[in-house]
Write a structure and sequence with these properties.
This protein is of the alpha/beta class and 364 residues long. Helix content is 34%, strand content 20%. The chain is built from 11 helices and 11 strands. The strands form 2 sheets. It has a 7-stranded parallel β-sheet, sandwiched between helices. Strands 8-7-9-10 form a 4-stranded mixed β-sheet. Strand 9 and strand 10 form a beta hairpin. Helix 1 crosses helix 9, helix 3 packs across helix 4 and helix 10 packs across helix 11.
Length: 364
């Protein structure tokens, strides 16, 4: 099979896990390839993904080979494949816009960004890099709340003619105006806001769907999350959280038997605990009534390494985007978006989204 050439915006923890995973699974026997939803998707294996361009704004990463940059601070995720060869791809300076929260400068350098002094590229310069690198897909890993920056790069993808995967909770694929722009140009888009492999949202959704299927009335629920990576530090700025909270809350509401009133549901990041690093701890509580109006409650604690959890889904989303390119399909990829993302244009149950995605993979 040909290579799947991707460009990356934001060389953080999630990209570190993704790139390590590409190489980790490259020589794995399919029977021993633990942790993948699909080892192969229509002939494409994880090792067929190749990073051909990367953008960041941290001076510790800009100018480095991308395989070196993923191990630089403030990245703190688990290193499970340390012996990466040189990629030959240098991390370029990106356009900052609203990609860095103002409060980040108040924390130690090993926890936050140190902005590069290099001049920011124009949209025309980024589009040129995308075209000259041969990138087929642009993957967005900007921090939560990067509304202006996410749209800037989505527009670059449109102008460069490359597919776009929006891993963050800025509403692009789920915005009808943006979706139409991708449809009009016949360019695939997957989004919005990646749903981790075995994370807080997917677990909360499955439990909510279980309440519905088993006839239990869900009356109140919360999901509280703590972590110590840059993502959680960034989200301490409440004004950056509006779309994140909406994305996570709607993901749960969409599978409930009845929508809960706002005062009876709380879903979202809760606090930054530096020593947790890339470990994310989630607390879920669900209160309801079962047979005879008898009350019940469920409490659960989930502890996961946040970034590998994301990469396990991203590696499939990338390959689905490539299938769409191969087949000449543009616009929103509804099935992959519903299965891989928290805030797709249309919500489906995870069972339905899984079946739809399998059909999408196998249809050609």
């Amino acid at each position: 099979m040909s290579k799947i050439k991707i460009a990356i915006v934001g060389v953080g923890n999630c990209v570190s896990s993704l790139i390590q995973g590409i190489h980790y699974y490259r020589d794995k026997n399919p029977e021993n390839a633990i942790g993948l939803m699909h080892y192969e998707i229509n002939g494409y294996k994880p090792g067929d993904i190749e990073v051909v361009a990367a953008f960041d704004v941290d001076k510790r990463k800009v100018g480095l080979d991308v395989h070196e940059a993923i191990f630089e601070k403030p990245n703190c995720t688990t290193i499970f494949y340390p012996e990466l060869p040189q990629s030959g791809v240098t991390v370029r300076m990106g356009n900052i816009l609203d990609g860095v929260a103002d409060h980040m400068k108040d924390y130690p350098d090993n926890q936050t960004f140190i902005l590069s002094s290099e001049s920011e590229p124009t949209a025309a310069e980024i589009i040129k890099v995308l075209k000259e690198s041969g990138a087929q897909i642009l993957t967005n890993y900007l921090p939560v709340g990067s509304e202006e920056a996410a749209r800037f790069y989505a527009n670059c993808a449109l102008e460069a003619g490359v597919a776009f995967i929006n891993n963050i909770p800025v509403f692009i694929a789920s915005d009808p105006a943006w979706a139409k722009r991708f449809e009009d140009k016949n360019i695939p888009i997957i989004g919005d806001d990646i749903k981790s492999q075995m994370g807080a949202t997917i677990t909360h959704r499955i439990l909510t769907d279980l309440f519905k299927k088993r006839g239990v009335k869900l009356e109140r629920t919360y999901q509280l999350n703590t972590g110590g990576n840059t993502d959680f530090l960034n989200m301490l700025e409440q004004k950056r959280l509006a779309t994140k909270k909406k994305s996570k809350t709607e993901a749960v509401q969409a599978v409930a038997a009845r929508r809960l009133n706002d005062e009876n549901i709380h879903v979202g990041p809760s606090d930054y605990v530096p020593w947790q690093k890339d470990n994310k701890v989630c607390f879920i509580r669900m209160e309801g009534k079962l047979f005879g109006d008898v009350p019940m409650n469920l409490e659960m604690r989930l502890s996961v390494e946040d970034s590998p959890n994301s990469a396990g889904v991203a590696i499939d989303a990338i390959r689905c985007a490539k299938l769409a390119l191969d087949r000449g399909i543009g616009g929103i990829l509804e099935a992959p978006s519903a299965y891989f993302c928290k805030h797709p244009a249309r919500q489906f149950t995870d069972d339905d989204a899984f079946t739809m995605t399998e059909d999408f993979i196998n249809e050609g």
